[in-house]
């Protein structure tokens, strides 16, 4: 009976699941770690359901274009830059020709536990977007403006220098930020930033406070399916 009224603009209907992964390994008891077998099962599910995995540019184009995508879309994000993202996640995603975004802290690169630049470059060639997650994975709210600025801009500078890309999309370590952080991001031309607040990404959100969906590595496939709804 509402059909005589104008429908809401398409923008309000755009809702993109941004999945948030971390380590891809066998580590019982750690909900932030998912086993390679489970990740494979989830990627197979996405493929079977006809999902398109977005590049960051495609995600931003949808966000800015205001057109609801005709296909099912998802943005896969991996935080922190664990070595297993290269050894385990990269080949699993490559099997499906899937794209993903990796948020790294360059201060942890080359320490032997996290990805090194050679691996990061290979992932970039394999279709992964690489963006900053602070230099040393800091809780920014514990730092003064000067230190926050360094953590944010130096991470960006190193990624841009190593990969020859623009790295103006931030991801808050621990999801933590304050007004100073938002001010610094704006001042330095960051266009988007991802939080750990739970929910679908929708263009009516502040682009510096985009929501994501935490993938609980201990949960089963049915819980994964319900995340996407
Ligand atoms: Zn992190």
From TrEMBL:
Q: Where are the transmembrane segments?
A: none
CC annotations in GO: extracellular region
What InterPro entries does the database record attribute to this sequence?
Answer: Glyco_hydro/deAcase_b/a-brl, NODB_dom, Polysacch_Deacetylase
Q: Which UniProt keywords apply?
A: Signal
Entries under SUPFAM superfamilies matching the protein: Glycoside hydrolase/deacetylase
List the GO molecular function terms.
hydrolase activity, acting on carbon-nitrogen (but not peptide) bonds
Q: Name one GO biological process term.
A: carbohydrate metabolic process
Give the highest taxon in the source lineage: Bacteria
Please state every residue range assigned to the domain named NodB homology: 72-229
User: Gene3D superfamilies recorded for this chain?
Assistant: Glycoside hydrolase/deacetylase
- What's the chief localization of this chain? secreted
Its subcellular locations are: Secreted
What the entry lists under PROSITE patterns is as follows: NODB
Name the PANTHER family for this protein: POLY-BETA-1,6-N-ACETYL-D-GLUCOSAMINE N-DEACETYLASE (PTHR34216:SF3), PTHR34216
Write the protein's name: Polysaccharide deacetylase
Q: What organism does the record attribute this protein to?
A: Paenibacillus ferrarius
């Amino acid at each position: 009976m509402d059909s005589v009224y104008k429908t809401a603009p398409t923008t309000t209907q755009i809702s993109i699941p941004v999945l948030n992964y971390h380590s891809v390994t066998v580590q019982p008891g750690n909900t932030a770690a998912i086993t390679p077998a489970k990740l494979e099962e989830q990627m197979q599910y996405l493929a079977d359901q006809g999902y398109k995995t977005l590049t960051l540019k495609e995600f931003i184009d949808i966000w800015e274009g205001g057109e609801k995508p005709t296909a099912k879309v998802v943005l896969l994000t991996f935080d922190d830059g664990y070595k297993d993202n290269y050894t385990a996640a990269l080949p699993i995603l490559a099997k499906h020709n899937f794209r993903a975004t990796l948020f790294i802290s360059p201060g942890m690169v080359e320490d032997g536990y996290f990805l090194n630049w050679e691996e990061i470059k290979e992932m970039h060639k394999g279709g992964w977007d690489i963006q900053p997650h602070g230099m040393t994975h800091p809780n920014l709210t514990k730092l003064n403006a000067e230190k926050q600025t360094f953590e944010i801009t130096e991470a960006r500078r190193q990624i841009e220098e190593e990969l020859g890309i623009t790295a103006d999309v931030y991801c808050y370590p621990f999801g933590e930020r304050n007004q100073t952080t938002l001010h610094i991001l704006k001042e330095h031309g960051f266009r988007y930033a991802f939080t750990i607040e739970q929910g679908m990404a929708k263009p009516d959100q502040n682009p510096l406070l985009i929501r994501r969906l935490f993938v609980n590595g201990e949960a089963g496939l049915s819980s994964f399916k319900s995340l996407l709804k």
